C-alpha cells in the first residue's frame, strides 16, 4: 500500500498553487475595505484643510502685496520725505453712534441720520474741538470698515496706517461680510462724506474684546492717495453688536403708550414684576401710568417687591412717554371732566362753569379725585376726542415729579392769592357752584420751558 503523499508548498507546482484562489479572495475583501476607509479619511481631511489653506494663502498674499507696496514707496525719495512729515489732515465722525446696535439694523448717528465723515485740518482748529470741514483741490473716496474694539492701544491717539490696516476685521469663515450695504465706499465733497445705509451681519462676541469700532479711511493703498497726502483715519468709540433677536427685548426710549409694560426699565419680559402687573390687568405703559394717577398706593402695592430705587428708575422712564393729543371725556349729571391719556384731569365743567386743575380748592380736589377714581374704573366707556378746543397746547412729554402724588402735593399748596392790579381782581378759594358776581372769568394756564405745568390763575374782570 502506497503511503499518502503530504502536500509540500516547496515542492508543489508554482504555476498551480492549490490555495491561491482562497488566499486571493480573503485579501481582496480586506483591501477593498482599507481603500474605502482611506478614501473617506482623505476626503474628510481635504474638506477640513481647504478653508484653513485658503485663509493662509489669502493672508500671505495680502502681506506680500503690502510689503511690495511699501517697498515701492520707500524707493521713491519724494514719498519717503512726505511720509516723515506729521499729518494735519484727519477724518472724523462728528457725532456719536446710536446704541445699542443689532445685527440687521441700520447703523446711524444718535439723531437717526446716516453716518457722516468730515475732513478736518488739525492745524487750523487752534487747539479747539472745532469740526470745520476742509476741502481738497481733488476728489477722494472714503471706505467704511470694521475695526477691533481693542484698537488702538494705549491712549488711543497714535497709530500708523499699517496699524490701522492690520486691525481691520473680516468676516468669520463661512459667514457673510461683516458690513452689508451698497454705500460702503462714498465720495467726499467739500470735506463731507455721507455713508449710505449699511448694517452688521454678525455679532461681536467672537473676538477677544467682544467689541467693534467703525473706521473710515481714504480708499487708496496705505492711506496715501495718488497725490501723496497723508490723511489720518477716523474711528468711532468701541461698541457691542448684539444679535437681532436681542432687539425683540429692547427697551424703548421714549416708550409709547401702546408699548407693553416690560418695555420699561427694570421690568423684564415674563419676569416677576411683569407677571404681577399682568395679573392686575396692567399690560401697557398707559395702563401703568393711569393707575399711578388714579391709585398710586395700589400700584406700589402690586410692585411691593420692587425697591424704591428701582421704582424711581421705572417711573422716570415711564414719564418720558409720548402722550399725543388724545383726550377722554367723562360725563355725569352736572359735570364733564376731561382727562389726558394717563387719567390726569385737564379741565372740569361743573354746573355749567369751567375749572382747570389749579383752580380747585382742597375740598374741590377731593371731589375731583373721587371722579378720577370713577373714570378710571369706567375708562373703556369714556368718550375719546383727538383735540379739545380752548385748551392751551400741552407738552407731549411727561416730566419729572411723582404723578401719583400730584394731588397730595396740591393739597399742601395755597391755590390762590388775592391782589388787585390793572383793574383785575384774582379770585380766591372759589368752590364748585359758587356764582361769579360780576364780570367775566378767565382761566390762564402756564407751562414752564421744561414742560411742567404751572398753576393756573383765575381772574375776574371787575371793571
Order of helices and strands: HHEEEEHEEEEEEEEHHHHEEEEHEHEEEE
- Category from helices, strands and their pairing: alpha+beta
Helix content: 25-40%
Using only C-alpha atoms, the radius of gyration works out to 39 Å
- For this structure, what is the CATH homologous superfamily of the domain at 89-245? Macroglobulin (MG2) domain
Average pLDDT score = 75
Query: What is the CATH C level class of the domain at 89-245, in words?
Result: Mainly Beta
Region (Disordered): 1-23
Domain Calmodulin binding protein central: 257-321
InterPro entries: Calmod_bind_C, Calmod_bind_M, Calmodulin_bind_N, CBP60
Family: Belongs to the plant ACBP60 protein family.
How does this structure look, described?
It is a single chain. This protein is an alpha+beta fold. Among the domains are: 157 residues, Sandwich (Immunoglobulin-like), CATH 2.60.40.1930; 70 residues; 61 residues, no CATH class. It has 9 helices and 21 strands. It has a 5-stranded antiparallel beta sheet with strand order 16-15-14-13-17, covered by helices on one side. A 4-stranded mixed beta sheet has the order 7-3-1-10, with no helix packed on it. Strand 20 and strand 21 form a beta hairpin.
What does this entry show, briefly?
With 463 residues, this protein is of the alpha+beta class. The protein is 28% helix and 20% strand.
SSE map:
Elements: H1 20-75, H2 77-84, E1 89-92, E2 101-102, E3 116-121, E4 140-148, H3 161-166, E5 179-181, E6 185-188, E7 192-194, E8 198-200, E9 212-218, E10 231-232, E11 234-235, E12 241-242, H4 272-279, H5 285-294, H6 296-302, H7 308-318, E13 327-331, E14 335-339, E15 345-350, E16 353-356, H8 362-377, E17 383-385, H9 406-411, E18 420-421, E19 424-426, E20 441-447, E21 453-461
Parallel strand pairs: 1-10, 2-12
Antiparallel strand pairs: 1-3, 3-7, 4-6, 4-9, 5-8, 9-11, 13-14, 13-17, 14-15, 15-16, 18-19, 19-21, 20-21
Helix pairs in contact: 5-6
